[in-house]
Amino acid sequence: MRYTGNKVIDENKQGEATLVDETSELKNYKKLYIESYGCQMNFSDSEIVASILIGEGYTTVADFKEADVILINTCSIRDNAEQRVLNRLRNFQGLKKKKPDLIVGMLGCMAERLKYELVEKKKVLDLVAGPDAYRDLPRLLQTVESGQKAVNVLLSREETYADISPVRLDANGISAFISIMRGCDNMCSFCVVPFTRGRERSRDPESIVTEARDLINKGYREVTLLGQNVDSYKWNITAKGEILNPEEPIVKFADLLEKVAMVSPDLRIRYSTSHPKDLTNEVLETMARHENICDYIHLPVQAGNNEILKKMNRGYTSEWYLDRISAIKRYIPECAISTDVIVGFCGETDEQYAETVDLMNYVKFDFAYMFKYSERPKTLAERNFNDNVPEDIKASRLQSIIDMQLEHSHLSNKKMVGKTCKVLIEGVSKRSENKLYGRNSQNAVVIFDRDDLQKGEYVDVLIDDCTSATLFGKVIDKYSKN
Ligand code: 5AD
Ligand code: SF4
After folding, report:
1. What is the value of pTM for the model shown?
2. What atom in ligand 2 is closest to the CA of residue 8?
3. If you count Cβ atoms within 10 Å of the first and of the last residue's Cβ in the chain, which end, N or C, has fewer?
């Protein structure tokens, strides 16, 4: 069993195959292998793709060597993510030499940029489908079967796949993702997402609530609402504030959170990712009011210096960010906060970098994802600035903040020792058959004795020890099942 945390890009999961229990009812099924890279959104999209293709007579397989069709769902966020996928494609090429009928296709964020190179020039791929083109996959596959190459990388202003009930990647049967919006309009200068995933659009709230209800009925106990920028979720109102249908209610992110929280007190709610400029007090107040909305916020800061933040086009200053941090602590004193940080952005001086260190030292995040700046094609930064911080400086800046963050994470866990927390059991620990793992509301992993407990149950655990990554404790109480 893998622990699937609430991470932006979970290193444990990169390249994991999407496997589902459901097979097609049709007899002559074809074998599909899907492998996913990148953020949770990509993993969630692979579940939508699996759902579409199962409806077309496919079944999923765990070993790519058995497949008739291999799809690789890709990420472009940094150059190393792309390199990893390109290496993997070489394995599939080897197999294609032995199995000429094998179809190899690329999905996701690398599709648009590499379609020409990989389909026409290098002839490595038979099929390319961008993030908004998955409904077209059955047609694209037929085109390939008839002997042609097939490409659809059109981005859409409307597609949310709202009516497609995703088959679950089902790592533990307890926690699932629900995609609530797609795309991003923020145009951070370093970021490729607006180009790979297109304009921002939100999904019908009723379809989200129905999906949450369906999940709890199937035994799930936790949902993570996903979007590139969840706080700007909006339904029945445009970004400019125009109401689309005056007869219908407006639903903003805080309202949506409340609707999902009301589905059941036994369903935990998480969400990712928030943008500091959009995280409203209303959202914090809603979180504070519902015990089942977890006390955890992922709030990427990216940098601590205002000039760098401006060049990144983040739309806030470090003062604004710190104000949001104090608001979180005011509304939800026990709230855990994690962040993303980029070092070595174009022109970043030692002094500017030091302000990132100061900010991290001041906030003492519970967790952080830290990256070296990687220039991406088409982005505002690629067009306007020089990627001029030498690689060795980027590397040493990154290492310093990683070392510092490790201490902060340890500190955050040490504060829990001696306290009791409510944990949702997710499964058996990877290290020991006799231990279970789960997470507390703050998203920290907690390990404890198995006894006669089952995954999906809530328990109170008294924490007695910790490392920088994990809490250990004893179960002192069990919540009765409804
Ligand atoms: N280089 C390095 N890190 C990046 N991120 C996004 N784009 C880049 C880039 N070009 C990081 C940001 C973002 C996270 C998902 O990835 O920190 O929040
Ligand atoms: Fe990678 Fe961003 Fe695409 Fe997610 S949205 S797969 S992080 S490029």
Report:
1. 0.92
2. 7
3. C
